[in-house]
């Protein structure tokens, strides 16, 4: 019974506090601020800068001779935005 009474009082207090006139005024104010904020959120230079900072990945293969055997090694080369490169051996397959 106490829970039901508390719920009824809560719903009634929300109804008295937020009148329809205030809701309309608040809605107009938030719409105006949202329109001005949307035009200044994402300038174009940020998008271009983001594309420059991506990591570029290239796969290369080469033939390597070890004694009489020949292998094809495939490498993954990552070009990092700070100028460094990371090389990783992906596969080594015997050719002849």
Order of H and E elements: HHHEEE
| Biggest pleated-sheet summary | 3 strands, antiparallel
What quaternary form is this?
Answer: single chain
User: Whole-number radius of gyration?
Assistant: 32 Å
The tally of helices reads 3
Question: Order of strands across the widest beta sheet?
Answer: 1-2-3
Report the β-strand fraction as a percent range.
25-35%
Shape category = elongated
Helix content: 40-55%
Euclidean distance between termini CA atoms: 87 Å
Q: Provide the structure class.
A: alpha+beta
Average pLDDT number: 77
Give a count of the beta strands, DSSP E runs of length 2 or more. Answer: 3
Describe the protein's architecture and organization:
- With 96 residues, the protein is α+β, with helices and mostly antiparallel strands.
- It contains three helices and three strands; from the N terminus they run αααβββ.
- It has helices spanning 2-17, 20-39, 44-52, and strands spanning 56-66, 69-79, 85-94.
- A three-stranded antiparallel beta sheet has the order 1-2-3, with no helix packed on it.
- The chain is elongated.
- The N and C termini lie far apart (87 Å).
- The mean pLDDT is 77.
List keywords for this structure.
3-stranded antiparallel sheet; alpha+beta; elongated
Question: Which helices and strands occur, and which strands form pairs?
Answer:
Elements: H1 2-17, H2 20-39, H3 44-52, E1 56-66, E2 69-79, E3 85-94
Antiparallel strand pairs: 1-2, 2-3
Explain briefly what this protein structure is:
With 96 residues, this protein is an alpha+beta fold. Helices cover 47% and strands 33% of the residues.
